[in-house]
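Readers of this paper often ask what the protein records in our data store actually look like. Such a record has a labelled line for the sequence and another for the backbone structure tokens. Nothing more is needed to write down the fold, since each code stands for a local backbone conformation. The record that follows is passed on verbatim for readers who wish to inspect the format.
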Amino acid sequence: MYLRPRTVDEVLQALATHGGRILAGGTDFFPALGDKPVTGPVIDISGLGGLSDITVSNEEVRIGACTTWRTVAGASLPRSFDALRAAAREVGSIQIQNMGTVGGNLCTASPAADGVPPLLALDAEVELTSLQGHRRLPLRDFIASYRKTLIRADEILTAVVVPRTIEGPSAFLKLGVRRYLVISIAMVAAILEIHPDGTVKQARVAVGACSAVAQRLRALERDLTGAVAGPGLGALARPDHLELLSPIDDLRGTADYRREAALTLIRRSLDSCLDDASVAEA
């Protein structure tokens, strides 16, 4: 059964009546099938109005769940979203960026989902909608484990909501065996808010592809806060800051290599934030 509702209410009614799987851009949905045919009801939400808009206010940025990565990459957003825009340009190929959606990237819950570290660093929340209404969850709680989220069978993800709690330059870096169409070995998103006195007011650092779920490095963030925002800031990142990560050995690299790569990317991303801050001040 293939259903193509015209409104969110129709989607929710279809879920309540038939159950089924949600289809948006399809860039994860169809590859996951392999050689298997589609079974069970499919509810296509790609044509829904209102779920592909980005709105910016003084309090928050709201990204509709069906917003494509191509749209995110070209959007006019605050500087703290530069890491997210950079990640959008790294998602698959241009064709995938044209079809793949922000909501789909999060619901897939891949450890190597490019959108997750930048959104974690932004303290993003997900908006989940059912016939009973809306609820919000922090993204850090929504992705519960490998390929698992806390979305219920009667819910759809309708938006990603980012409270504007940090302002400043941000950066996203990833390592793979090639530039595009690659599963990351490691990826990092960083944001720095710099105090007028030249010290770090706030720091956010998130690492993906090095654990079952992307992680914020809270200890590193605390150590960066109050430090002089100048040359050598990246060197404050130490191996012990990565102890909560649990990288694996696979054909792309060993766990030790992933840790070393993540540390290098963290240092480079922090230095990149400082470079962007200097350009903005010039």
Notes: The radius of gyration is 19 Å. The chain has a mean pLDDT of 94.
